[in-house]
Amino acid sequence: MPEQSPGSRPTLEAVAARAGVSRATASRVVNGGDG
């Protein structure tokens, strides 16, 4: 995975890939969804 440039925010896709989960799962966690 490419490193983020200084000062930039990671994308949801990058967070999901780093965590080893789907984009949907990462989205639920970030947005406080239940389930």
From TrEMBL:
Residue intervals of the HTH lacI-type domain: 10-35
Top-level taxonomy: Bacteria, Bacillati, Actinomycetota, Actinomycetes, Kitasatosporales
Protein name: LacI family DNA-binding transcriptional regulator
The species this protein was found in: Streptomyces sp. SID7499
Molecular-function GO terms, alphabetical: DNA binding
A Pfam family that the UniProt record links to this protein: LacI
Key words of the record: DNA-binding
Entry keyword annotation includes Transport: no
InterPro entries: HTH_LacI, Lambda_DNA-bd_dom_sf
Highest taxon above the source species: Bacteria
GO terms, biological process: regulation of DNA-templated transcription
